[in-house]
Each structure stands twice: as C-alpha cells, then as structure tokens.
Design a protein that fits this description.
The protein has a domain at about 5-70: RNA polymerase subunit, RPB6/omega (Eukaryotic RPB6 RNA polymerase subunit, Alpha-Beta Complex), CATH 3.90.940. It is built from six helices and no strands. It has helices at about 5-10, 15-30, 45-55, 60-70, 85-95, 115-120. Helix 2 crosses helix 4 (about 60-70).
Length: about 130
Amino acid sequence: MARVTVEDCIDKVDNRFELVLLASHRARQISQGAPITVDRDKDKNPVVALREIADETLSPDDLKEDLIHSLQKHVEVDEPEQEAGSMISNAVAAAKGDDEDELPETLTFDQMSEEELLAGIEGLVPPEKSDDY
C-alpha cells in the first residue's frame, strides 16, 4: 500500500493539529501492544496510526475520548453537597474534641433580610478623600 498522507486523513479529522494528537496517541497505543486494524506492511507505528484513521477502521471520536481519558489525572465524581447546617454542626463537632464545655451546643447566626441589608448599605458614609490614595 502506498504511504498515507495528511490529505488522506484530513477529511476524517478536520483540524490538522488534532489529527497529529490522535495519530500520536494511537501510535503510542500500538507501541504498547494494542492490536492494529490494518496490515502493517513494514510501516512504523505513526504511519500505521494514520492509515487506521484514513481507512476509518478506528473512529476519531473514540480516539479523542481515549486520549482525553489518558490525560486526565483526577476525575471528579459528582456527589451531592452537604447542607450548610450539617456542615456547621460537623465543624463544631470536630472543633469540640475533648473540650465540650467551651462551645455552645448549636451555633446561631444573625438573620438579616434583604431590605435591612440595603438600608444598612444606604446608611454608610463614604470615606473622606485623602492624599494617600
């Protein structure tokens, strides 16, 4: 089979830079022992990877997903967040330790309505201008 060129692959993967990333990732997979889907014909791994992309024996979307997965170092797992009250009670329990007499049983916070907050902000006096700034 004749050598594969970028023009043979560019209609499968639109971006040349993405094509290079996908082909290099696939070439690394082949060098690590992944089975190839086309005849090797004494070609090196990057050429085999490009031929696989050009012949559409591998899906570029699957290669892209596998590349992204291989580059991830930390995968976040979506877990429900704790309620604010339970977080505070957990913090209080952790802070208590052996000294249970020093902290109150429950923490209370001042509640302020939006109207009260706006009234307080409107009542603020701007600082006087000085030469410092």
